[in-house]
């Protein structure tokens, strides 16, 4: 029997609270800065309590951003968040759809060079986007997909990691279940839809959370592929807000935009928290 010591419980909880405070403090400072005027933000020391400009700053950030500043046309955080949402959802659903179908084919179909195809997919883990970005850009440009949602999402939807993950999930499915489905007359598509997809639900949820955040935080590819201001993503938009040259950055708007940019990923994680954790730790079906 393990003895429970009260001082040890207090110590572990104290360390946990300290860690939360260290992580949350920068977010708190960002929030406080987003509720004050520029004069209050740039003064020293900066206020440590929220101010009275919260509604005005967030409405300006959503609707106008920095207006015509920073050499760009007026575009608000609302439009930039919509662009990021389209990109994140497109990448997440695209990666999951392609990866789960590829894993299904590799595990359950017998065709020449099946394992060679899998290892070719797996070896692409060694080639990040930065390595193949120039040929990828050339292909996208030749296909006329610059400055489009298709150009933002399609080149990033292939995923060797997701394919490997679903392959391991499918290999864990008992052979008896496959034989039972075959005896009942289920074809490949019926087996995939009625058996494999429900068994992979938690894994799909965990992968969706990871891929959504991956797509939402993309910086290099949207920066290269888009010149149309109306297609700015929220990450690129925040960086553009800081490109003011010798002028003073509107820090209260930048901070408000930063706080808004954190909302969708947080909502996705909170909404899918149980499935996300279960999908990462579940080992048996």
Protein architecture, described:
The chain has a domain at 78-233 and 263-281: Orthogonal Bundle (MetI-like fold), CATH 1.10.3720.10. The chain is globular, with a radius of gyration of 24 Å. It has helices at residues 6-33, 38-42, 54-63, 77-108, 114-123, 133-142, 149-153, 160-171, 175-183, 188-199, 201-216, 220-225, 234-241, 251-271, 273-281. The two termini are 31 Å apart. It contains 15 helices and no strands. Helix content is 68%, strand content 0%. By secondary structure, it is mostly helical.
- CATH level 4 superfamily of the domain at 78-233 and 263-281: MetI-like
So what's the CATH class of the domain at 78-233 and 263-281?
Mainly Alpha
Shape: globular
* CATH third-tier fold name of the domain at 78-233 and 263-281: MetI-like fold
Distance, first to last CA: 31 Å
Question: How many helix segments?
Answer: 15
Structural class: mainly alpha
* Gyration radius over CA: 24 Å
How would the blueprint of this fold be written?
Elements: H1 6-33, H2 38-42, H3 54-63, H4 77-108, H5 114-123, H6 133-142, H7 149-153, H8 160-171, H9 175-183, H10 188-199, H11 201-216, H12 220-225, H13 234-241, H14 251-271, H15 273-281
Helix pairs in contact: 1-14, 3-14, 4-8, 4-11, 5-8, 11-15, 13-14
Q: Would you summarize the structure shown here?
A:
The chain has 285 residues and is an all-alpha fold. The chain has helices spanning 6-33, 38-42, 54-63, 77-108, 114-123, 133-142, 149-153, 160-171, 175-183, 188-199, 201-216, 220-225, 234-241, 251-271, 273-281. It is built from 15 helices and no strands.
